[in-house]
Amino acid sequence: MKTIIYCLMAVVTMIAMPVAMAQSSTLKAGDPVQIELKAPAEDAAVFGGNYTISESGTVKVPHLNQEISAVGCSTSQLSRKIEAAYRAAEIYTNPTIIVNMQNPTQYVPHVVNVGGEVRSPGEAPFRENMRLFQAITSRGGFTEFAKVREVKLVRGNKETKYDLRQIKADGSNNPFLQDGDQIIVPQG
């Protein structure tokens, strides 16, 4: 009997995990979200729908002249921001907004890519305040062939080289990372 209960608990956990991860993660540009207005009910049909967070990190909702900053927010934080914006614009006095990730079973984690001369090249889960060296060590650290003085950080179309032979106290050669950054450790 205990075995059956443990198996059922494992199955429920596996099913619930993607939903919980999507709800607890922070939003990023390009994330699809579903936004619903629960109150006032008469406007719910017009308002509700699917939205995509813009490349600039904002979302545009009906009746507001400004876009709402969404990047780095959880879905519940974005809900509160939208509610506050409607109250501030005096459009709704007490709105109830619900924001959910679209298709949470297909949750895409926030990652940085680490490649080249590291022991285990691949994606590293992105965390707030993550630094360059931390991402490299999360993938096993440098190989003996790594050119540590020319580690490349690619962000968008910009490539910057860093010398990681010795980390400086001010962090100038160990920058904070952003979701989607690519790190390339060349062969030396």
Describe the structure.
By secondary structure, the protein is an alpha+beta fold. It has two domains: 80 residues, wza like domain (wza like fold, 2-Layer Sandwich); 75 residues, Outer membrane lipoprotein wza domain like (Outer membrane lipoprotein wza fold like, Roll), CATH 3.10.560. Helix content is 26%, strand content 24%. The strands form three sheets. It has a five-stranded mixed β-sheet with strand order 7-6-10-8-9, with helices on one face. Strands 2-1-5 form a three-stranded antiparallel β-sheet. The longest helix is centred in the N-terminal third of the chain and has 23 residues. The chain is elongated. About 10% of the residues have low confidence.
Task: Please outline what is shown here.
With 188 residues, the chain is α+β, with helices and mostly antiparallel strands.
Biggest sheet strand line-up: 7-6-10-8-9
- Named at the architecture level, the CATH assignment of the largest domain is 2-Layer Sandwich
CATH topology of the largest domain: wza like fold
Beta content comes to 15-25%
CATH class of the largest domain: Alpha Beta
pLDDT averaged residue by residue: 83
Provide the helix percentage.
25-40%
Question: Which structural class matches the secondary elements?
Answer: alpha+beta
How many independent structural domains? 2
**Gap between N and C termini:** 59 Å
Number of strands: 10
Query: Total helix count?
Result: 4
Q: What's the order of the H and E elements?
A: HEHEEEHEEEHEEE
Question: What is the overall shape?
Answer: elongated
User: What is the CATH homologous superfamily assignment of the largest domain?
Assistant: wza like domain
What ranges have pLDDT less than 50 throughout 5 or more consecutive residues? 6-24
The largest pleated sheet is described as: 5 strands, mixed
Kindly provide the radius of gyration, computed on alpha-carbon positions and rounded to a whole number of angstroms: 21 Å
